[in-house]
């Protein structure tokens, strides 16, 4: 019995017998293939990009729920931006690199900015700044007398001297502050006593200072020394109203 061979198989066998022509090896070329990245200014190369826009918000349901979950409002803002400045030969006079990025600046409830400036073997500086607008219309406890509409600002800065050496020194500063109106309730005695609404114009501040050093020994072992100073201050003025428990006639004269 004869067995047929598919034509495509026969063709592939014939082609395999033909001499193959070697393809030329593709090697990198020093020729310019496109425009230079960024713009050159003296000894630095600069890139810059940004995105701006206008937000519109139309709330058809519960505005308190929208603000607690999303909280984006109307207005113009810088949605995002990026700036880089790099030394062309890696040996700038005052710095070798600057990198700045931002998000949501202008009117967004969640904003941030990050900055880095460094010079090889001399210093490395990093900064992070954030803003958070927090809104909570009322928790379903204490007759709806819980409310929070505060703004929190956070920043952290770190300076490292001689970052590539075996002896590195660190200087840092951090800040966390909260401000805005808040409403809560207080019950001083027991579960049957009066409940008093307590209003606060929140003013809280936390500051941190850091000082430290790293020492790298032969073999890669590193010793890190760090000391922190932390300061917290709460200057929130408090006011209170009459009790809300109809079965308790207790009144409050001071708090």
Give your account of this protein's structure:
The chain is mainly β and 255 residues long. It has two domains: 35-120, no CATH class; 132-255, no CATH class. Strands 1, 2, 3, 4, 5, 6, 7, 8, 9, 10 and 11 form an eleven-stranded antiparallel beta sheet that branches. It has helices at residues 7-17, 63-69, and strands spanning 39-41, 44-55, 75-87, 97-105, 110-119, 123-136, 147-161, 167-186, 196-216, 222-234, 238-240. The protein has two helices and eleven strands. Strand 7 (147-161) and strand 8 (167-186) form a beta hairpin.
Brief summary:
The chain is mainly beta. It has helices at residues 7-17, 63-69; strands at residues 39-41, 44-55, 75-87, 97-105, 110-119, 123-136, 147-161, 167-186, 196-216, 222-234, 238-240. The chain is built from two helices and eleven strands.
Strand and helix map with partners:
Elements (H helix, E strand, L loop, with lengths): L6 H11 L21 E3 L2 E12 L7 H7 L5 E13 L9 E9 L4 E10 L3 E14 L10 E15 L5 E20 L9 E21 L5 E13 L3 E3 L15
Antiparallel strand pairs: 1-2, 2-3, 3-4, 4-5, 5-6, 6-7, 7-8, 8-9, 9-10, 9-11
Task: List the defining traits of the structure above.
2 domains; flat; disordered N terminus; eleven-stranded antiparallel β-sheet
> How many beta strands in the DSSP annotation?
11
- Shape from CA axes? flat
Number of domains: 2
Structural class: mainly beta
If you compute it from the alpha carbons, what radius of gyration comes out, rounded to the nearest whole angstrom? 32 Å
Order of helices and strands: HEEHEEEEEEEEE
């Amino acid at each position: 019995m004869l067995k047929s061979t598919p034509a495509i198989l026969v063709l592939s066998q014939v082609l395999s017998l033909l001499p193959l022509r070697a393809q030329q090896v593709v090697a990198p070329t020093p020729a310019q293939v496109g425009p230079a990245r960024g713009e050159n200014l003296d000894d630095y190369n600069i890139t810059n990009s940004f995105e701006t826009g206008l937000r519109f918000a139309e709330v058809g349901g519960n505005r308190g729920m929208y603000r607690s979950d999303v909280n984006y409002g109307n207005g113009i803002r810088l949605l995002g931006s990026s700036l880089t400045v790099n030394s062309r030969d890696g040996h700038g006079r005052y710095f070798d690199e600057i990198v700045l990025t931002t998000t949501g600046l202008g009117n967004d409830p969640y904003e941030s900015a990050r900055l880095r400036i460094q010079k090889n073997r001399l210093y490395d500086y990093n900064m992070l700044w954030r803003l958070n607008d927090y809104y909570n219309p009322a928790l379903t406890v204490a007759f709806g007398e819980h409310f929070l509409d505060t703004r929190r600002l956070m920043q952290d800065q770190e300076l490292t001297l001689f970052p590539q050496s075996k002896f590195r020194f660190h200087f840092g500063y951090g800040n966390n502050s909260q401000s805005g109106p808040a409403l809560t309730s207080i019950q001083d005695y027991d579960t049957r006593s009066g409940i008093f609404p307590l209003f606060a114009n929140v003013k809280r501040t936390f500051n941190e200072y850091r000082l430290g050093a790293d020492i790298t020994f032969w073999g890669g072992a590193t010793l890190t020394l760090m000391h922190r100073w932390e300061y917290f201050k709460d200057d929130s003025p408090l006011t209170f109203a009459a009790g809300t428990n109809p079965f308790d006639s207790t009144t409050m004269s001071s708090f």
